[in-house]
Amino acid sequence: MMKKALSILAIAAGLVWAGCDNKTSPGGNNQGGTSTSIFTATLLPSNEQPPIANAENTGSGTVTITMNVTRDASNAITAATASFQVSVANFPSTTNFTIAHIHEGNTSVASGPIKVNTTLASGEVVLVNGAASFTKSNINVPLDVAQGMLNNPSGYYFNIHTQLNGGGVARGQLVKTQ
Predict the structure, then answer these.
(1) What integer is the mean pLDDT of 57-75?
(2) Does the reported pTM lie above 0.85?
(3) What structural domains and CATH numbers belong to the chain?
(4) Chain centroid to CA 75: how far?
C-alpha cells in the first residue's frame, strides 16, 4: 500500500512539474516557444538631430511596436516580426510622409543605420486636420535586431520622414513596456 501511495505521489509531482513550464509565457524566461514584447516611443521634431526648425516642427506622434519572437529549445531567436501602430498630429496640411522605420542609435546619433523598414510609401498617409494614423503588420525583424531591441531598447529609435524633412521629421527612442 505504501509503495502504491508513493508511486501516485511521484506521478502527481511529475505532472505538477510539467505544468510549470513557461515555454510560451509572454515576457517569461522562454526556453523555446513564442513571446510578445511591446515598445513605445513619443515622436517629436525636437528629438531629431538636428531638431526640426521649419513649419513641420509643430507636429508630434506616437508609435507602438508589438514584436513577436519565436525561440528554439536553446533559447535562440529563430524568427521575429513586428506590427506598428503610428499616430501623428498637429502637422501642416501640406505634410507628405514618405517613410518610417527603426534605426539603431542613441539620442545623440544624427542618423543611425535603418534596421527595420515599415514599408510606408510616400503619399500613403493622408492628413485630416493635421492628424493621421497608420498600421503596418507582420514586418520581418532581423534576428540580431530583435535581440538588440530586447537587450537595449533605448539603443534604437523610430522616426518618420517627410518630403520636406527627408532626414526625419519626428523621432523617439524605444521604451519596452511589456
Answers:
(1) 97
(2) no
(3) 30-176 (2.60.40)
(4) 20
